[in-house]
């Protein structure tokens, strides 16, 4: 049985329509997962309801016992994710945010702007044309470093608004890397790739679909990055270092 509309409404408010695991904002792209599966006696109660984004929800089902890859989500962990995220959302409007919390958020904000400054990957994505032109993967290395560090559990803002902005940036960056990996191929030597130019003549529809996808995802990454910088400066009252290091 699915959850009834009252349970769903309660859960949607409790999670702020953000995924309970990866914390990105989902809007309508959110689903309710049974922490204890229905086939194992799990009920359609609020306590058993875990709101998840499509990607995290797919992870719940895709784990193959016969070919174990990665680490399976256990019931205890899901309950903990739910409890911590629901608490974070409900505390976000209350003044439980201390000076120490703010200091930790400032440090994280500065770490992010060091790993992913405005003038490398982001600037490249802001201006590059992927339609018919090759690009150097080196330009993407900052974005890839940003994605790698997000496996660090301390890479999470305590302030819920900032955390949602950060998690959404992570998910868009991931989408972009996937779009590039699936639609571009290496050209000549070195680290350059391109949407195959022959597609433009041979299958223009595919060429357009690929370049449109890359451009629209790049645009989402840049807009979300800008939002993070603006929100971070506004809420934490810190500046980002805009000068480049001089050797
Ligand atoms: Zn998620």
Quick rundown:
The chain has helices spanning 5-15, 54-62, 75-91, 99-115, 118-127, 141-149, 160-183, 197-202, 204-236; strands spanning 30-34, 49-53, 135-136, 185-186, 192-194.
What does this structure look like?
With 247 residues, this protein is mainly alpha-helical. The chain is built from 9 helices and 5 strands. It has helices at 5-15, 54-62, 75-91, 99-115, 118-127, 141-149, 160-183, 197-202, 204-236, and strands spanning 30-34, 49-53, 135-136, 185-186, 192-194. The chain has a 3-stranded antiparallel beta sheet with strand order 3-5-4. Strands 1-2 form a two-stranded antiparallel sheet. Helix content is 55%, strand content 7%. The structure holds zinc ion. Zinc ion binds at residues 19, 21-22, 24, 52-53, 55-56.
């Amino acid at each position: 049985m699915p959850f009834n509309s009252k349970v769903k409404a309660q859960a949607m408010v409790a999670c702020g329509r953000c995924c309970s695991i990866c914390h990105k904002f989902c809007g309508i792209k959110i689903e309710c997962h049974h922490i204890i599966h229905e086939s194992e006696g799990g009920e359609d109660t609020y306590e058993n309801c875990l709101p998840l984004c499509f990607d995290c929800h797919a992870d719940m089902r895709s784990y193959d016992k016969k070919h174990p890859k990665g680490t399976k989500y256990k019931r205890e962990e899901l309950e903990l994710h739910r409890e911590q995220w629901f608490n974070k959302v409900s505390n976000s409007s209350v003044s439980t945010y201390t000076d120490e919390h703010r200091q930790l958020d400032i440090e994280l904000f500065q770490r992010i702007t060091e790993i992913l400054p405005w003038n490398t990957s982001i600037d490249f994505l802001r201006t590059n044309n992927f339609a018919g032109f090759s690009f150097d993967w080196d330009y993407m290395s900052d974005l890839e470093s940003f994605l790698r560090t997000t496996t660090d559990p301390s890479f999470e803002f305590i302030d819920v608004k900032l955390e949602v902005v950060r998690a959404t940036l992570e998910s868009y960056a991931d989408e972009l890397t996937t779009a590039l990996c699936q639609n571009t191929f290496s050209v000549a030597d070195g680290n350059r790739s391109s949407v195959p130019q022959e597609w433009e003549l041979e299958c223009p529809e595919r060429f357009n679909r690929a370049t449109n996808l890359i451009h629209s995802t790049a645009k989402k990454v840049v807009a979300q990055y800008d939002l993070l910088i603006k929100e971070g400066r506004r809420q934490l009252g810190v500046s980002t270092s805009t000068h480049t290091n001089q050797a």
